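Researcher: Sit down with what I've pasted below and flag anything odd:
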Amino acid sequence: MEPAIRTLSTQESRVVLALTEQRQRTATRAEIITLLGGSAKAADHVIEALRRKGWLERAAWGEYLVIPPEQGPDVLGDSNLLARASLIADPYYIGYGTAAAHYGLTTQHRNIIYLVTPTRLRPRNAGESRIQIVNPAQNKFFGSGSVDVLGFKVTISDREKTAIDCIDRPDLAGGVGEAATILATASRRFDWSKALAYLERIGEGALVRRFGWLADHVQADIPPNIRDGLMNLRGRTSTVTLGPSRAKKVRDAIGYDKTWRIFVNVPQDELRDSPGMGRSKTVRKET
């Protein structure tokens, strides 16, 4: 593939200089039409040329990411799909396995971007990736913040909410085994009070039990007061399962755990790599 040529015509330069001086990282078709002061058709020709030359990247219909002059033509493309996905819906956050990969909590990289939003939208493609829309329950749409991704502000679930979301929907994280790994890695830098507050806010005892069991499984360093708080949030339901429904018992399933009152319908083999992963690693000092 030949690199994009970033030389500009007079009209193209006018658009790029104006957007750069205003420090805009996004622009709409309407804004570019206004900048050029001409017809929509003429503006569309300029937009197409700027896209072809690597100055604009289409994010949604009539919306574009602006690639600054100091950055090369390949700065966005498929390498910053999160910025493109961020313009699809408002409000939103990038979550589940995508957020876990951003934080380095998982080594699995899939060509799916999980966009969490209350807005009902169809999934769509972005380059070679698929943007999957996740519509959460109202009580679960929180716990995110703005993160810089190659100069673009993108809203991503924070480390604690990412781990909780992945336990709640392991199918969006690579499975229960991968959710355990994500929790183990995240827990080493956890704000445990925040995690407890998040679980209390969600208000689902079944999720608390799954979280608690997996935290014990990976031997996360849970502060005693947080553990007591988790125990108080377990609820009274007696039919909680981690993994598929008990009606479909998995071969070699781990089975019932009386501490968290949960049936772990997951084979030992799926969780073989995660026991003890949450333990804090200490560095031995030389004397």
The CA atoms of residues 111 and 129 lie 5 Å apart. Residues 40-52 form the longest helix (13 residues).
